[in-house]
Amino acid sequence: PPRDGVVGMVRRMALTLAKLTFAVVLIAPAVAQAQQVAMATLEQRIATLAKSPPPYSRECRITAAAHEGRTALRTMRRALKEGRVVKVLAVGSSSTSGVGASSQFATYPVRLENDLEVIFKGIDIDVISRGVPGEGGLSACTPMKREVAETKPDLVVWQVGTNDAMARADIDELKLHLARTLQWLAKNHIDVVLIDPQFTERLSHDEHYTKVVRAIEEIARQERVMLVHRFGAMADLAKQQGERAILANDLFHLNDLGYRCMAEYAAGAIVAGIIQAQTQADQGASVPSDGPPLRQ
Q1: Is the pLDDT of residue 175 over 50?
Q2: Helix (H) or strand (E) holding 128
Q3: Which residues contact 274 (CB under 8 A, 6 or more apart)?
Q4: Which helix (H) or strand (E) holds 276?
Q5: Are strands 125-131 and 86-92 parallel, antiparallel or unpaired?
Q6: What is the pLDDT of residues 155-169, one digit of tens each?
Q7: N or C: more exposed end of the chain, with fewer CB within 10 A?
Q8: How distant, in Å, are the alpha carbons of 94, 132, 230 from that of 138?
Q9: pLDDT tens digits along 92-132
């Protein structure tokens, strides 16, 4: 092409680039300011939650401790801070897949997602359900690593122990598998909340079953992860309302109300862990605080 045409084309490209650069210069501060406002809003929301945690619904109120742990969910807090989609991987057995629920919308992972999005308004939280009926803690390690690699979650909520207890699994072997899996998740900077076994009146008198419940609590404390006391919480609800109020017709799996309460207790544990992470960030701490676990 003629020289003037080439020069003109170069000038137009330079002008376009200049306009784009100017736009970026104008937009960048606005984006940074919006991020600062969002972070300030998040910190204000967490401060409010610290003073007044989200209450349980009337049907799910209990006197027992619903969760335990002094664990900072730092990855969850960071994901919320970044304003991106927060990924929660729910793994476990039939309680996670929703056996006993009237529909998928009544399962605990779906309810947990809804609860968290109400608590943290304006943030997209994706709870990915990977429940496998019959799966136990002894067989969960390899599938969990595969699911983690596929979904890249910020948090794993692991409902564990019921099938191991029913199968009379060796408790020391179960504790070893749980500890190794929790350590692997920690090394990969993935937050964890454990949910202990299901409650029924009949199983509450089974010595091996209750030993598994206590073993999971022991490992949660040892590995410093948040624990939802489903067994104790559902025992409290059963005492108040009768176990048929929270159990399906098989008197083993949860029904819609049971799953709703399970989701509320899990959400409460997650909020407590995020509050702890914010507290540590405010104090400039990089390690979990010492001291006995908190029960709430």
Answers
A1: yes
A2: strand 125-131
A3: 46, 49, 73, 76, 77, 80
A4: helix 256-283
A5: parallel
A6: 999 999 999 999 999
A7: N
A8: 16, 13, 20
A9: 999 999 999 999 999 999 999 999 999 999 999 999 999 88
Does the reported pTM lie above 0.90?
A: no
| Amino acid found at 252 | F
CA distance 126 to 117: 9
Both tokens of 1, joined, read 């092409």
- Partners of residue 129 on adjacent β-strands: 90
pLDDT value, residue 137: 74
Q: Which two tokens stand for residue 94?
A: 């039939």
pLDDT in tens, 202-220: 999 999 999 999 999 999 9
Run of H or E residues at 192:
strand 191-195
Instruction: Determine the Cα–Cα distance for residues 20 and 18; give it in Å rounded to an integer.
Output: 5
77: number of Cβ within 10 Å: 24
Contact 240, 56 (CB under 8 A): no
Place of tokens 């909020």: 271
pLDDT of 38: 52
C-alpha to C-alpha distance for 225 and 72, rounded to whole angstroms = 9
22 confidence band (pLDDT: 50, 70, 90): low
Tokens at 254, concatenated? 């949860």
Q: DSSP secondary structure string, 205-266? A: G-HHHHHHHHHHHHHHHHTT-EEE-HHHHHHHHHHHH-GGGTB-TTSSSB-HHHHHHHHHHH
> With 0-12 CB in 10 A as exposed, 13-18 as middle and 19+ as buried, what is 5?
exposed
Q: What is the pLDDT of residue 142?
A: 81
Residue 30 has pLDDT above 50, yes or no: no
Instruction: Measure Cα distances from 111 to 32, 105, 118, 231, 265 in Å.
Output: 33, 7, 11, 19, 11
